[in-house]
Amino acid sequence: MPRAGLDSATVIERAAQLLDENPAEGLNLPRIAESFGVRVPSLYKHIDGMTGLRRGVTILARRSLSTAIAQATIGRSKNDAITILATTYRAWALAHPGQYPLTIHAPVATDEEDMTVSMSLLTVIFAVLDGYNLRDDDAVDATRFLRSTLHGFVAIETGGGFEMPRDLERSYARLVDSLVTALSTWNRQ
């Protein structure tokens, strides 16, 4: 019989929390079990091993990032929407340093839930880009540009690669301004 209070969602949420607290340790079943006061085999009643745990935390992370960006961009358009999207993306990644890397990879094509969650974020991004009249192939190109630019900065920042004596906020603001400029002129290329 499953331990009272433990279920799949609880185990996945705890795993995500512990991953953010110590990203270098990665997903660690013994640590998760210890946090609940149970043995590792007890977790297998709620998750399908490391594969199931990784999938669950990945979907949780993607859903959380998507929700944060969707809520932040509601009622905003064009430059304002891009600015708040970029700010929210970075803030979420910094607040979730262990989960963030799980959001980067393409969804598993055979996993309907993963595809749905991933598409929800893409839908928000496409809606923001629609403010610049970017649709279809232009929206895909602009999305790749936006994601790779934001991810590049965030990955270097979270990896400790920005050690020069220069204000990071200023650098990020300039990056966002450059994104806005590029997207504003995208259709003129």
Provide an overview of this structure.
- It is a single chain.
- By secondary structure, this protein is mainly alpha-helical.
- Helices cover 68% and strands 0% of the residues.
- It contains eight helices and no strands.
- The mean pLDDT is 92.
Distinctive features:
8 helices, mainly alpha, single chain, globular
Average pLDDT for all residues:
92
DSSP E strands, number: 0
Major sheet, described briefly? none
Shape descriptor: globular
How much of the sequence lies in strands comes to under 5%
Low-confidence spans: none
Helix/strand order, N-terminal first: HHHHHHHH
The helix/strand class is mainly alpha
Number of helical segments with 4 or more residues: 8
Termini distance? 63 Å
What's the gyration radius in Å?
19 Å
Helix content: 55-70%
Summarize the structure.
The protein has 189 residues and is mostly helical. It contains 8 helices and no strands.
